[in-house]
Amino acid sequence: MERYQLEDMEVIFDCAGRDDWGKFSFPVWYGIPVKVNWRGYRVDFNLRGGLKRLTGTMSVWPDPQSSLKRTEGNDFIYYGTSGYEFSYDLIKNYYMPFNGIYESDLFTENPLEGRHVGQALDAFDGLVEAAGRLAASALCDRPRDFLKKVAARNRVTLAEDAKTLHRIIGTNLPVLPPDTIDVDYEVIPLIVTEGCKSNCRFCLFKSAGDFRVRSRQSIAAQIRAVKDFYGADLVNYNSVVLGQNDALAAGGELLTGTADMAYDLLNLSASYHRGRPRLYIFGGVDSFLAADDSLFEGLERLPYSTSINVGLESPDQETLDRLGKPLRAEKVRESFRKMQEVNRCRRNIEVSCNFVLGGDLPSRNVEAIKTMLTEEKTTKGKGVVYLSPLLGASQRREVLREFRAIKMASPLPVFIYLAQRL
Description:
This protein is 36% helix and 20% strand. The protein is α/β, with parallel strands linked by helices. The protein is globular, with a radius of gyration of 22 Å.
């Protein structure tokens, strides 16, 4: 590590964090940030000089176990504890991520509205101003150049950076696949399809317009522009998400071609994170059932560990009808059987699925999910089941009761899906 002290600001380079995306009940950081300590605050910056993570000493940050993280989409996620065992059992993570965008009744308060968060962001504004002043007096090139980058990325500029990313990919990702929690949502977005064929009535993550597949030329241009955008910070990524909500419908040739190109152009083999890079894809029931062996063989040959998440919603027809899901329950059951088959046969592919909970759904929904999970032959160690509470329509007690009933009955791991976006 290299440390530089400029008045009351300490700048630390080459801080190697964890490279394994593990699950820990104590605070850790991943990748290679630049750390800045200033007036009690501990701030991690990415290698482009953008704010990444913020904590502090007890004098300014009352909970040493919590942290505030900024995404490349310029959202803030507050990571707090709610009892380690409870949190991990519920969401597959020891820290509960609260983004304040998709309100969930699982949270009894909004930690982003806490006074210490507002004070920390005000302090960040002061840090940015101080960085510009101290850069001019720095005697060494490395801290001088970095502090200039920090000074150029105040909160207004960071918001513009997020708009630039969304212009590059031509849209945003209204929701990330639930499995991206395994890499702390640190994914590079690439769009291969837009819109959704189903247009379900209950969905809050709709994208505008009809379903359409992007051309190879536009995808190639997108990848090159994304590479320029992330720049020096690419080393901190080894995961790609192909969007939007039904990228699987793009077909095997386009998916594998995009993934291969991204692997080469984004230099994912040189990532700081060890292990195979990860590829995340959403799929609908129809696109998943239509996917043939050639598609899965193509994905299997990629240099990635691929996660496909399929929105099954419910195996109960009355529930599907109430959700406005244009789908027959038999197709849901067929998709679940195919999920198990793919997980048994494909070493580098894992398929997970989502079901909906809460709201005014028929009581038989939970029983139908439990029955299907227990009746089908499952694959040990692969195939997570995620339960999605209907946002704004679900009560905490009801959701937790239904979650527990399904989790206790299921031979597969079951977790709550807390939506994040990019």
